[in-house]
Amino acid sequence: MERLNAVLNLLSVVVIIFAATMLVPLGLSLHLADGAEQAYDTAILATALAGGLAWVATRGRQRELQARDGFLLVTLAWAVLPAFGALPLMSYLPKLTFTEAYFEAMSGLTTTGATVLSGLDRLPPSINFWRCELQWLGGMGILVLVVAILPLLGVGGRQILKAETPGPMKDTKLTPRITETAKGLWGVYALLTLACVLAMRWAGMTWLDAVMHAFTTMSTGGFSPYDASFAHWNSPAIEGVTIVFMLIAGINFATHFQVLRKRSLRSYRDDPEVRVFLAVIAVSVVGITLFLLAKGVYRDFWVALRYTAFNLVSVATSTGYANTNFGVWPLFAPLWMLFLVSFVSCSGSTGGGIKLVRAMLMFKQAFRELARIVHPRAYIPVKLGGHPVENNIIFAVLAFMLVYGGTISVITMLLAATGLDFVTAFSAVVACINNLGPGLGQVGPATNFALLNNFQTWLCSGAMLLGRLELLTVLVLFTPAFWRK
Amino acid sequence: MACLWAGARRTGLEPDADAQKDYNGAPFEGESATLKIIILGAGQVGASVAESLVSEQNDITIVDVDPARLNALQDRFDLRTLVGSASHPSVLAEAGAADADLLIAVTQSDETNLVACKVAARMFNVPRRVARIRATDFLNDEKVLGPDGFDVDLSICPEQVLTDYIVKLVEFPEALQVLDFADGRVSLVAVRSYKGGPLVGRQLKDLRRHIPGVDVRVVAIFRRDRAIVPDGDTVIEVGDEIFCLAPEKHIRRVMRELRRMDRPVKRVMVAGGGNIGLRLARALENDYSVRVVEHNKRRCEMLAAKVNRALVLNGDATDEELLEQENIAEMDLFVAVTNDDEHNIMSALLAKRMGARRVVALINRRSYVDLLQSGEIDIAISPAQSTIGKLLAHVRRGDIVSVHSLRRGAAEALEAVVHGDRESCRVTGRRIDEIDLPAGTTIGALVRGEEVIMAHHDSVIQAEDHVIVFVADKKTLPRVEKLFQVGVRFL
Q1: Do residues B172 and B96 both lie within one domain?
Q2: What is the pLDDT, as a whole number, of residue B30?
Q3: Euclidean distance between CA atoms A219 and B245, whole angstroms
Q4: Considering only Cβ atoms within 10 Å of each terminal Cβ, which end of chain A, N or C, has fewer?
Q5: Are B207 and B273 found together in one domain?
Q6: Which of B301, B308, B313 lies at the smallest CB-CB distance from A377?
């Protein structure tokens, strides 16, 4: 109980900060007079009140965070914040149930980008802005932001960073102090977002659209204020700019940080993931383009390349924009894209999935076992970037993959059992757990998740949470050992 | 005198004025001159350095922390020993650093060697300091070893020299040894003639007819361990060890004439993953398929982390089962480089018996080397002799750029730079047949700028030429060195 109190105390601070982030759409709403300001008043009041009360109740119970507390805090925060994030949506759209609003907010914070709303074009701009801001906050991680701006966490900040940032090897500290690391990561994230805003404005968006899309591009979220997503513009320039920034968002932000600090592109070359990431995507784009030409979906090579490049990069980096309904392409193409999203994003990026580094380690581990059959006495280390990777990391990755595969199977079964067809069920789970957004079949890019029943919606919300926190952070809370002293 | 310590001039590290004065004092003039040398570290390298310098009449003090090692040395050689930490000023003072001419720091630890050089330079004005440095990190920036850094005149790394030696053997599988002179412009190759070889039973002058356009010179032939000074009429016999000099680019053609070309090496197995094994694996792994056998598990892990493509195997190189498993019969070259002579010999013999095409063993003990050369083991490398050439060049009188020991130290090949003029030097401006060379000594080639000239009796030597000299009998070395010294009148 002592642990819970200490964590709740911190959580209340996080909730209060979260309330403050709603001031931005409130300001926008007042400025544009779009009629939604009432919604924010209620939401901010309720959120701040809840946070304040929790803080008062647990005051005096603060203590230094321990290793396990980080997992608890992060999971609780990610489960609770979407409830508060849902408040503005619920109060503006009274027909929206809590289940749906929670799903929408969870989809936002986890940068998934799946939506239950339709008629986005008719929503007030500030509501759309709030959805996009949720994605931006969730992209780099709202708790990382808290670590960066609040000194109160001290050493515990490391546990939080470990629990919230994706990837199997998180002990590489960029700076000696964890607060500085968090500031650095958020600084780079903000800087790149700014660059993205300018580039999108230059490519032809309005300032408001540019900001919203930069938010959802850099976080690989995929929310768009238009039902048609990028088909709204039908502009190769905008799509080109977006492809570039989606790729940037799919690369480890620690590497971006190094590049900016050292003012040299060398760090990209030294990062073992970047090369593979770009190569896999490039080969896939060319391959799928040729496949679509061969199948007669497109006649012209450049048209095929344009649609393949945009949709493939968007899906592979777990962003989830679309400029055409790729759900109607021959099944292999969208399946391949779903396959890519499961692993191709780099660790430490804002993309979802199991992360490229884990896939590379598994691949190398498989080769090691093959080599061992031929040379039983050989010492063959699994190496990454020229350095051997310890066996316990490989075991951890193996365990992660098993849990990942198991989770996908279980949730797919549950969705299928409750009435979804297999393609829809499976693609919905893949889309949620990888924080992608659109699936196939009934949840494809041309439709949305609104057809799910309550149970299915909750399941998908859970899958997004599990996927964003990379499963183990959440699942560890369900082990008895975690709660023992 | 200015030409004596060419090394100093080359590196731009002129000893300070005081030291220079001490240094230019008596010891260097006559043939009986002795150098006062301090050697730090009595390990394998220290001992072999001591051995070769003692035989050249120098005053040697050797320092080590292990009295047992020192006792063993003192029993064998005429030198002074001192127990203590090599880098401590008090120990250096006691070793006589104040009037030493040369400090050779060859302890196991790079750091000790570096500090000893600095202390020797700053406190005792020792004019020349040589340090053994294994970590290439120290060599990346010359500031580290420069006068403001650790003040090291010459750094040596015996493991690297041995590695280079073995790499040459992999590149030229027909050769017993390949040595480079004049920055790689000229090579000296040792080849053993074998029954049925293209030139066996022919005269040497036929060689030139066989390879038109290639200037090659046979500088010595060893027949049944005795040197023959070759001339055009010498007939090559089976089992002769032939040393020939040729421009580097023609080496392959020359070797093809002397021996049928072996098929190139593809697979190499290295027994022993120590310092040499690791360097070898890293040097070869990109061009050949390399396997390293090492018995220590922790060392295996370390090796596996450091190599890229080479395969690290845990086990004993004398384990038949392991060799069988790893297809020893398919190996083009088996190199045994553990630090245990007997182990190297046994594993090399076993590998040969099991079908490895060529086997090379690293053998420290000279008696073993003599026992094995030309037997089952194709090449026995004696590290002591092959690694200290660079150091010897540094100690020699005259402007000697490099020295290579051949035939386990019985013979030597030198590269010397000629200075002065006809008046001050006994070589400059003379035809080769005018020079009073001791018996068994051959001038093989001249390198003038970029140009390589194979020496003929009427070639004229000019100042600043690099001369490559082959000395078949080491006893005549002092006379050869003296030839290349510039007389007092030159000053």
Answers
A1: no
A2: 40
A3: 68
A4: C
A5: no
A6: B313
| Cβ pair B303:A375 closer than 8 A | no
Q: How far is it, in rounded angstroms, from Cα A51 to Cα A13?
A: 7
- Tell me how far CA of residue A468 lies from CA of A68, A107, A135, A349, A355, in angstroms: 18, 10, 12, 12, 11
For residue A257 the two structure tokens come to 């940080």
Contacts A–B by Cβ distance under 8 A = 35
The whole-number pLDDT of residue A145 equals 84
Residue with tokens 């360097």: B279
In a domain, B351, yes or no: yes
d(Cα B9, Cα B437) in Å, to the nearest integer? 28
**pLDDT (tens digit per residue) in B426-472:** 788 888 888 888 887 888 888 888 888 888 778 888 888 888 888 88
Highest mean pLDDT out of A240-244, B131-135, B356-360: A240-244
Domain range holding B419?
387-490
- Distance, in angstroms, between B305 CA and closest chain A CA? 6
* B325: nearest CA partner in chain A: A375
Of residues B83 and A60, the one with the higher pLDDT is: B83
Give the total number of structural domains in chain B: 4
B326 closest CB neighbour out of A375, A380, A386: A375
CA distances (Å), origin B375, targets A303, B239, B380: 73, 11, 10
A375 contacts B325? CB cut-off 8 A = yes
Residue B435, classified by CB atoms within 10 Å of its CB into exposed (0-12), middle (13-18) or buried (19+), is middle
Report d(CA A279, CA A284) in Å as an integer.
8
Considering the domain architecture, whether residues B20 and B116 belong to the same structural domain is answered as yes
Among residues B238, B258, B278, which one ends one of the domains?
A: B258
Is B1 domain-assigned?
A: no
Chain B residues closer than 8 Å to A378 by CB:
311-314
B300 touches chain A (CB under 8 A): yes
- What is the reported pLDDT for B397? 65
User: Is residue B445 domain-shared with residue B305, that is, in the same domain?
Assistant: no
CB contact under 8 A, A388 and B304: yes
Q: Which of A324-333, A430-439, B18-27 has the lowest mean pLDDT?
A: B18-27
Which residue in chain A has the smallest CA separation from B298?
A379
Q: Does B301 touch chain A (CB under 8 A)?
A: yes
| pLDDT range class, residue A171, cuts 50, 70, 90 | low
Looking at beta carbons, which residues of chain A come within 8 Å of B300? Answer: 379
CA dihedral B473, B474, B479, B482 (to 10 degrees): 130
Q: Which of B282, B286, B302, B312 to mutate to test the interface with A (most CBs of A within 10 A)?
A: B312
Taking alpha carbons only, the member of B64, B108, B106, B68 closest to residue B85 is B64
* Residues of B in Cβ contact (< 8 Å) with A381: 301, 304-305
Looking at the fold, whether B173 and B116 belong to one and the same domain comes out as no
CATH number for the domain spanning B114: value is: 3.40.50.720
A-chain residues near B314 (CB < 8 A): 377-379
Question: Does any domain span residue B311?
Answer: yes
CB spacing of A377 vs B304 below 8 angstroms: no
Tell me what the pLDDT averaged over chain B comes to: 81
**pLDDT above 50 for A132:** yes
Q: Which residues on A lie below 8 Å from B304 (Cβ)?
A: 379-381, 388
Averaged pLDDT, B10-14: 36
Is pLDDT of A99 > 70?
yes
Does B44 share its domain with B132?
yes
Name the interface residues of A facing B (CB cutoff 8 Å).
Answer: 371, 375-381, 383, 386-388
pLDDT of residue B398: 65
Entry pTM: 0.80
Choose the final residue of a domain: B354, B382, B410. B382
Please compute the mean of the pLDDT values over residues B242-257 and round it to a whole number.
80
ipTM over cut 0.95: no
Q: Which CATH number characterizes residue B472's domain?
A: 3.30.70.1450
> Is residue B130 in a domain?
yes
A371 contact residues in B (CB cutoff 8 A): 311
Assess whether B92 and B128 both reside in one domain.
yes
The answer to whether B286 faces chain A, any CB pair under 8 Å, is no
